[in-house]
Amino acid sequence: MSRRLPPRAGEVIDRNEPVRFTWNGAEVTGYRRDTIVSALAGAGERIFSRSMKYHRPRGILTADYWDPNCRLQVGDEPNVRAAHRLVDHGMAVSAQNAWPSLDFDVRAANNAVSRFLTAGFYYKTFMKPARLWPAYERVLATFAPGGTVDLDTPHGYYDKRYAHPDVVVAGGGPAGLAAALAAADTGARVMLVEHDHRLGGHLLIGGGGDRAAAAELVSAVTDHPAIEVLLDSTVTGRYDDNWTAIVQRSHPVAVERLIKARAKVLVVAPGLIERPYVFGGNDRPGVMLSGAARRLIELYSIKPGDRAVVLSGNTSGDAAVRSLESAGVQVVRVVDARIGETVVATHGSPKRVEAVELADGTTVDADLLVTAIGWTAPTSLLNMAGDRPVYDEAAARFVPGGRLPDTVLATGGLVGDGSLDELVAHGRATGELAARRAAIVKATLQAATARARPPSEPIPEPPADDRPVLHPAPHPPLFRSASHGIVDYSEDVNSKDLVAAAAEGYDSVELIKRFTTSTMGPEQGKLETVNTVAVLAEARGESIGEVGTTVWRPPFAPITLGALGGRVFEPTRVSSIHAWHEANGMTPILAGQWIRPEHYGDPAAEVLNVRTNVGIIDVTPLGKLDLRGADVPRLLNLLYTNKWMQLPVGGVRYGVMCAEDGVVMDDGVTGRLGDDRYLMTTTSSGEGTVWEWAENWLQTLHPEWDVVITPVTTAFTSINVAGPRSRELLGRLTDVDLSPDAFGYMNVRLGSVAGVDGSIMWRIGFTGELSYELHVPAGHGLTVWEALLDRGADLGVAPFGLEAQRIMRLEKGHFIVGQDTDGLTRMPSTGLEALIRLDKDDFAGKPELAWALDGGDADGAVGPAVPRIVAIQPTDPNLVPAEACQVVRAGTNEIVGRITSSRFSPTLERSICLGQVLPEATAAGTVLTVVLTDGTRTTATVMAHHAHFDPEGARLRV
Amino acid sequence: MLLVPCPHCGPRNAADLRYLGETTVRPDPSSADPDAWRSYLYLRDNPAGWLTETWYCRSGCRRYFTLERHTVTNEFRQSPLPFAKGERS
Fold it and tell me: What secondary structure letter does DSSP report for A458?
């Protein structure tokens, strides 16, 4: 049955555009600018959800964003706030938390046993025995409320924006509008953020005079060039120095956009949120707040009932009476709370109010009960700026405590009550003050950036705060009637539960919240915090002010994970040869920020080709730092554990860097290219860390040293040419003398490769083969790469990827920092003690390494046994234990180590590993017990050398 | 997010900088005993009040500098010297 009224002045729906969507499979027609719930209510729907625990039918309570009874599934999106979300063509809307249907929910049986389902029921009942918890959890999980998440949902486009407005105004009611206008007129650039779909706030559900006033303010605001209006957007948090988070749900392209705005001044003007009344049957469909009734009638032209009782303690209740009467609803009784009247209970079926019981003993037949019993001031954003609300006894609500930084101002209903003129006057004065203070912040920031631009004008004097005062109006204290009812609708917490919890000792506001979960649902206390405090105060026999309230933290309204994730600004990096890799069958792998070829089809074949012929690999991500200056050797001496003062021009040396606690941080080779010119390589993706680390030493400890560091990772394309025929191949492309005598192992030469001058080549051997690493100017990387392939065809040259390189380095037993070492691995554990030169004056981590080599501290105390890296070969040559498999003492579960790297070696035709094991298990020939991922055990043997292949390094030195 | 007053670049978002924590004094590595060295590595005063700390302006001037910050109010003031002798981040 349609509940839609004839057209009314002030309605927001567009009757010329019907919108068709489905509700639990059935077609429903609403109008453009209907919310989902208003469209459904217009079509006669009264029940929108089942409650969380008791599965009680629930109808409209607030008819806005905060409505706890109107969260619905829309398509693949669960928990949509359907009293806020607008309808759209073809939406598939369905109820949540109801089975088999909203109309008949079998779990409503919980309601019959509700006296056993009190607060803490789950905690107490399913505690023991602990071994059954997984079973309990499986069953209870099916009781959890909420919609259905579709894991195959395509990723929506979410965006981010950074903004630097002078003034952010949170709230577009009369005070917020006036503040935005005055701030903009005073010279500020203003961002006005409104939670709802339109500006005007409570004026939109007022009379014709209110709507005319709103229209005037709104058109002035939207016409003002210095005001940006964000509708259907929420200021969700205020952080240090007025960093504000704004979720914009109204972006034309993005599903949502997270705006990070550095507001010079934040004006908080959210108005007031109407508070429900606690009494028996207060969640029966047909009980709603005055704001809900007024919104349904005035915005959507919906008749919310036929026979109404109105409990009124304020002007909003009186306005609801007028609205209801104008909509043809018979107001059978106005219960005036200001003269002590009140409501005790509703009666009827679980799905419908049929009668209202009053405190005077009478019972009135009605299908609608509208309550207007007071307000909650949403002080969240002020709390986030350090303010704590205080209770105003006369006004029966918490109000701001007045402890705010100069850059945060509050206005409107949040501060106090007043006529429209008074609210607008306060808003104007606040906006003007905000603009003047923003000018000071701006000038101060500019002055602090004086090197870039000297300030042209003096910083203005702080303006006086001479705003008119808004006082909260007196209001009768109405929290709970003489009966018990729902306090938290989302969490299904009854006032009886709170009383019982207080009696059990959970009698502080923070404890009772956590024990009963009251205020912990999706409304986060907007509707239920003050009622929770009031019921607790009653139970403790104290005043609300004495009990105090909980602290509201970010976010003001829930934020989707999509908005938080947003657009990712992390760059991906590719080398100059990337297009070639793509065209030639690379399987890509993401390594740090780099996209690299993992292999080109067959990594084992790539290994064998390097071992027998020659292969080339793109190693551009290798970190590269250009070091210049007379004191470079001293810096190297400080960063690396080994010695660097005697490195000749043309020499290359391997080094390990440790942090000050002796833990391995990075490794790589550094070559001396000229008298005062060095090239340092770091681990792939490690360049940034090493650069900052080196700068730290230079800037803080040795500012007198002459060293300049320039990161050149992407200035060069790096190619490793590896294999027994690499010399022959490279010889065809360069004029540099490659003969072993002229260009030996661990040397560097400068020259031309494939006609590219300024190329650096050094002879090193990560793969264990004769190899040359080329660093050629990046613009010519592809030229050199293709020349190598072209000129080496008869030598069997082929590209190889990261996987083949990793296999070969494992065959050679080279550890990888971060793979075979972790945040506890000090350098002696790597087996490279010989590279720790304690006879140097100083280097990073020296004292710790000295004590570690001693096996203990300087005072003789021996530390706990530390693991060492060893090479390991499984007894079963075809079994490759997964990396991170534990090594245990035979026959026990005592861990003595773990596998850190493992592969099948195509060269040796067997599985090979590196691992970290305790000293008791490091001797060559020790048989280890390895626990595989399926829990079975196998054995493996510790090898004498880290290198599984060519331990003498003969192949490197040819 | 804090605005950190880089002495060279002016106020910048804290995310533009790297925070290295309380500024420490590195003991002489050739003579430090384990207590002194590990105090340098791990122990911080963590005062509720003014603290001298090290920042690195990684997205701007790439300079290390010290600032004084009030850990209760997050108020900043410039420290008298960028780095005293021996001071380390």
Answer: P
Asked if residues A530 and A397 have their Cβ atoms less than 8 Å apart, the reply is yes
Instruction: Provide the domain limits for residue A549.
Output: 479-565
Same domain, A180 and A119: no
Strand partners, B5: B11
What is the band of B85 on the pLDDT scale with cuts at 50, 70, 90?
low
Distance CA A266, CA A405 (A): 10
Please report, for residues A266, A813, A912, the alpha-carbon distance to residue A952 in angstroms, rounded to integers and kept in the order given: 70, 12, 18
Distance from CA of B36 to the nearest CA of A (A): 11
CATH number for position A776: 3.30.1360.120
Q: What would the two tokens of residue B87 be? A: 């001071």
Whether residue B89 and residue A696 make contact (CB cut-off 8 A), yes or no, is yes
pLDDT score at A853: 87
Place of tokens 């613009």: A779
- The verdict on A822 touching B (C-beta cutoff 8 Å) is no
Q: Count other Cβ atoms within 10 Å, centred on residue B18.
A: 16
Nearest by CB: A240 against B2, B62, B89: B2
The answer to whether residue A268 is domain-embedded is yes
Max intra-chain CA distance, chain B = 41
Give the tokens for residue A179.
Answer: 């503040």
Please report, for residues A4, A327, A420, A462, the alpha-carbon distance to residue A322 in angstroms, rounded to integers and kept in the order given: 18, 9, 19, 47
Same domain, A685 and A787: yes
Cβ atoms of residues B56 and B62 within 8 Å = yes
Calpha distance A54→A283 (Å, rounded): 12
Higher pLDDT, A894 or B87: A894
- Regarding whether A214 and A287 lie in a shared domain, the answer is no
* Record: contact A448-B5, CB cut-off 8 A: yes
Residues in chain A, overall count: 958
In the numeric block, which tokens belong to residue A538?
């009653």
Query: What digits encode the pLDDT tens for the residues A244-267?
Result: 999 999 999 999 999 999 999 999
Task: Spell out the domain ranges in chain B.
Answer: 3-88
pLDDT of res. A532: 96
* CATH number assigned to the domain comprising residue A216: 3.50.50.60
User: Of the CATH numbers 1.10.1200.10, 3.90.1720.10, 3.30.2270.10, 3.50.50.60, which one belongs to the domain with range B3-88?
Assistant: 3.30.2270.10
pLDDT, residue A858, reads 47
A854 CB within 8 Å of a chain B CB:
no
Helix-, strand-, coil-residue percentages of chain A, each rounded to 5: 25, 30, 45
Give the total residue count for chain B: 89
The three state secondary structure string of A905-933 is ECCCCEEEEEEEECHHHCCCCCEEEEECC
CB contact under 8 A, A700 and B64: yes
Which one of A323, A340, A373 terminates a domain?
A373
Q: Quickly list H helices, A555-661.
A: 561-565, 578-583, 603-612, 632-639
Confidence label for B84 from pLDDT (cuts 50, 70 and 90): low
**Residue A447 main-chain phi, psi, to 5 deg:** -65, -35
Cis peptide before A100, with omega less than 30 degrees from 0?
Answer: yes
Q: Is residue A489 part of a domain?
A: yes
- Give dist(CA A246, CA A257) in Å, integer: 8
Question: Is the domain of A212 the same as that of A119?
Answer: no
Q: Distance between CA A247 and CA A236 in Å, rounded? A: 7
Beta bridge partners of A716: A777
Number of helices (H), then strands (E), in chain A: 23, 48
Q: Which residues contact A339 (CB under 8 A, 6 or more apart)?
A: none
Is B62 close to A695, i.e. CB distance below 8 A? yes
- Distance between CA atoms of residues A159 and A163, nearest Å: 13
For chain A, which residues score pLDDT lower than 70?
109-128, 138-145, 450-456, 855-863
Q: What is the DSSP letter of A548?
A: -
